[in-house]
Amino acid sequence: MDKLKPLIGFAMAAHQGLDPTIVRLVEIRASQINGCAVCLAMHSREARQAGESEERIILLDAFRESELYSDRERAALEWTEALTRLEPGGASYEVYANLKAHFSEDEQVKLTLSIGAINAFNRLNVGFRVSPAVLKDVPKAA
Description:
This protein is mainly α. It contains 7 helices and no strands. The chain starts with a helix and ends in a 15-residue tail after the last helix. The model has no long low-confidence stretch (mean pLDDT 94).
């Protein structure tokens, strides 16, 4: 795990100053898109422990159709999808304009770095076929 310390530090620095609820939603959404079971298990558990409702976690894949998410959360989730499923032309102007409407420049950069970090973790875990079983030895927060 020592080899992951730089990436963990990068992610923690990127998260500073962002709403922790948004960070958790972004981590779960990117992990859904990338099919990363270990990250889905870990970040869903963390979200529940922080008071996130089971309904919001379950409906995250359908955030556009659900009234459970704020406009700010939707903007972050749209940005997450745009950067996780990066199209040849990049993120659309509409998605970026929506992000700008809800986040300061500093928050936009931190959110983008956070998305980059979770995508890196997803690729490591999916690539190396890491199982959620590795979390059984991780202590659960009180």
